[in-house]
Design goal:
54% helix, 0% strand
C-alpha cells in the first residue's frame, strides 16, 4: 500500500486496528487528528526531517491531501496513528497494544529504519 495521502494513512491504520468494516469504530476525524499529532511528534524527535518546513500541517478530515514525509518514515506515522486512537479508546485492554504501536513509531523514527 502506497502511503501518500491522509486517506492512505487512515486506511493503513484501519488495517492495523482491524477496523475496516462500516460502521468504523474509530472516526475519520480522530485518525486525521492522530496523523497531525504523529507529524508533531516526528518533528520533535527528528527535526532534521522537517528542515525548511515552517509548520506541521493539521489534518481534520480524511481526504486526498498529500502528506509530505520521507518514505522511509511513513510506516512509523501509521504506527503512531494506530497507537494514538487505541490509547484514547475507553477499552482498558487496548493500552498495551497502543503502547506497542507508539513504541514502534519511536524506534522506527529514531533508528532510521
Amino acid at each position: 500500500m502506497a502511503l501518500s495521502t491522509v486517506s492512505d494513512y487512515a486506511s493503513a491504520a484501519r488495517l492495523l486496528l482491524q477496523d475496516e468494516t462500516l460502521p468504523y469504530r474509530f472516526s475519520d476525524g480522530n485518525l486525521a487528528f492522530a496523523l497531525s499529532a504523529a507529524l508533531g511528534e516526528a518533528r520533535r524527535l527528528r527535526s532534521d526531517l522537517f528542515l525548511g518546513v515552517a509548520s506541521v500541517p493539521t489534518y481534520t478530515i480524511v481526504d486526498s491531501t498529500t502528506v509530505t514525509m520521507d518514505e522511509r518514515y511513513r510506516m512509523a506515522l501509521v504506527y503512531y496513528v494506530a497507537g494514538w486512537v487505541q490509547l484514547v479508546d475507553d477499552e482498558d485492554t487496548q493500552d498495551s497494544r497502543a503502547l506497542a504501536f507508539l513504541g514502534k513509531f519511536t524506534s522506527e523514527l529514531v533508528s532510521g529504519a
